[in-house]
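Researcher: Next sequence.
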Amino acid sequence: MATLGRIRNHGVLLLIVIGVALLIFIVTDFVNNGSTFFREQRANVGSIDGEKVKYNDFFALINQAQDFVKVEQNRELDDNAFESIRQDVWNQLVMQTIVEKDARKIGMIVSKQELSDLIIGANPSPYISSRPMFQNPETGMFDHTMVARLIQELDNVSKSEGQNIDMEQVNRLRNYWKYLETNIKSATLIDKYNTLLSKALVVNSKEAQFAYNNSKTSVDVIYAMKPYFTIADSTINIDDKDIKALYDKRREQFVHEPSADISVVVFPISPSAEDIDAVKAQIDAAKAGFVAVSDSTIVDSVNYNSDVPYVDVFLSAQDVDADLKEFAFASSKNEVYGPIFIGNTFKMAKIVDTKMAPDSVKLSLI
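Model: Next structure:
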């Protein structure tokens, strides 16, 4: 009884203590759940058609795309290139996600066997047959064996990791291959989907027959017409309700959207004589470095000075710029030609290497 009495005497204090404890519990629960929510928000970079895109997955795709470009162009990337790659990866992911979502609903896929045929089959995907890495250096043509060799080398490295291997280069090649394989699969699925849509829009035989029958059907009609002006106005009674009803029915026909008159002045962007002289001075200054550049730094030199990126392959006569063809196949290694000015473009070329092959030369172009 004494205990109950003490509880009654301190009832208000007890209620305050219990209330504070409950408040702490609620706040703690909110903080815990809230932190989980915010962590989840930070873990996602966005959503595509309701599907969340996780940061780690998106960053992995960017790494693959970066390594693909590095291997293809044999150079490191600057901030502008990285931003361009990031945007390209996102755009590809949007297209891929939307098409795959609809394709799954109708059972459309790219099977493992189909993907294998597109990579090492008799009719490979253009995504792989056009890659310089898989072109035979002697013929300049696509070589299946070089694809198989890369796959085998990556497989062998996976079995022997931990040994004295340049893992940075290996991981770059792995990302290169993953990116290439993913794009082949995605492009094939999108091509299938587009083909399906195009076939769905073709007129079928029933529709064609129906249109033909309608076009050859004719009827004879006899009708009588009484012009409005023959009806006396006095015989027609129109009140305000009739006028308002007609107004409400037709007023949308007379709505005019806001419009504006715009005067446009087009200024053609063409170089002045001073502009051409300034660019010529720049390329003349670059020529000394172009002549002296070594094989190890020629890639960076060309990519820095030229609008045409360096391509490390031997070119046949049909691939060489027509303005440079005579120089390319009549000159020796390290000879430089130009600069020449043709069609508002300065061109300069250097023979990097030559080899005995059907109409083939390795040419560096600025």
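Model: DSSP finds 13 helices and six strands in the chain. The chain has three domains: 12-42, 49-200, 275-365.
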